[in-house]
């Protein structure tokens, strides 16, 4: 099923979930059980990540295929195009067809440093080239989405970092939407005001109708929270940092519980301030369920999902690593 059809069929706020393919078969079995339990959260769609250059192709297709065939939820497979040729893209898309995967998040990926230095990106230089290729060859068979960066995309030119600037990126985001992208998922962020400014700019300059799904990563440990924000070039507002005084930073349970409140605050602010225009919240789950389930259960915007859910279903269990 097209994720846009599912999104359009729901008027109430909802969530979507990102998973990555585990390395081992026991990790895969654990994750599939977890995804089964998380079905109670009625995700509008589930995405599965792709290693740039096709490094996880087999495992990504395997996981995405099983999820597509086991649940009613639309599955969206990430697909990167850097250092890739059309034959590899076609092979991945043919497999998606066979597995019933109808949604693709078309990404550039990050070229390996040595490839970047030589300026050899393969047949596709930017994500827009992949969007054009899929739409040109497969038409509406795939519902295609793209990435966006509320604080601007971090990039390097001649070994120097280019200042992040959402205004500079927006013209390229418009190219991707004009090429046929039907939805946008953002990089993770913790500054709701930066997302809101970006959403306004997107509405004014790119599209008044294409949905934007804000990317949210639950806070599971203070160290990982800071590391993820740094790797994603996402800023952490001072008032959020102030919620983690040094004496609690090593207490993961305390950090998680504060993190749940922070994410609830971000979601509710975005839903209210956009007057419901933004109504599907995308979680980078890191293959964990507990914080996401708590956020949904306790958020005034999202708790209707579990209140309306089938009470006979089992709730959340634990977060063992996958
Ligand atoms: P693009 O849209 O091509 O943009 C890349 C850069 O080029 C930007 O700075 C942009 O401003 C600039 N640009 C774009 N078009 C032009 C143009 N015509 N001329 C000049 N400059 C241009 N990576 C993975 O490897 N696997 C994943 O599964 C994955 N999933 C992701 C999911 C989400 C929601 C997000 C936000 C990112 C994900 N990434 C993933 C990371 C992503 O691949 C990197 O951030 C990558 O550096 C950029 O990808 P893009 O699709 O945004 O690229």
Please outline what is shown here.
This protein is an alpha/beta fold and 322 residues long. Helices cover 44% and strands 15% of the residues. The chain has an eight-stranded parallel beta barrel with strand order 1-2-3-4-5-8-9-10, surrounded by five helices. Strands 6-7 form a two-stranded antiparallel sheet.
Describe, in plain words, how this protein is organized in 3D.
The structure is a single chain. With 322 residues, the protein is α/β, with parallel strands linked by helices. The chain is 44% helix and 15% strand. It contains 13 helices and ten strands. The strands form two sheets. It has an eight-stranded parallel beta barrel, surrounded by five helices. Strands 6-7 form a two-stranded antiparallel ribbon. Strand 3 (75-80), helix 4 (86-99) and strand 4 (103-107) form a beta-alpha-beta unit. Helix 3 (57-70) runs parallel beside helix 4 (86-99) and helix 7 (166-178) crosses helix 8 (192-205). The two termini are 27 Å apart. The model is unreliable at 312-317 (pLDDT under 50). The structure holds flavin-adenine dinucleotide (FAD). Flavin-adenine dinucleotide is lined by residues 49-50, 52, 78, 80, 105, 107-110, 126-128, 147, 153, 155, 169, 172, 185, 187, 215. One of its GO terms (molecular function) is methylenetetrahydrofolate reductase [NAD(P)H] activity. Keywords: FAD, Flavoprotein, NADP, Oxidoreductase. Residues 308-317 have a biased composition (Acidic residues). Belongs to the methylenetetrahydrofolate reductase family. It comes from Maudiozyma humilis.
